[in-house]
Design brief:
This protein is mostly helical. It contains 4 helices and no strands.
Length: 133
Amino acid sequence: MATNAKIVHHWQLDVFQLAREAAQQFFQLSKRFPKEETYSLTDQGRRSSRAVGAIVAEGWRRRKYEAAFVNKLNEAEGEAAETQVWVMHAVDCEYLTKSEGRELHRLYDRILGKLVNMGNRPEVWLLKKTASE
């Protein structure tokens, strides 16, 4: 969605919905990872993939202050990029097919694009200050 005029809750944001979808895809695919990856690639990838949506939600609640909002969007970008790295490792180790890895990587590219666009135009998303503030 282009503006926050219709959006009241973070779960209405396209980027949040995509982040949930991507995290769920990573989770489902990571069920196939070998046991020896449980506390490394599997855990790290699941954490970073889930963090994207959580940080977007946190940023949404901090949009009264531009710097805090943009900082959270930037943190979410970092988690999305980290997840892309874990996906690459999973492909390198042949836990994911190249096709699966490419699809998930592209989904995170879409998420990153939306986060960058929001961060480049935060005024569209910020809460409007009242006259008493």
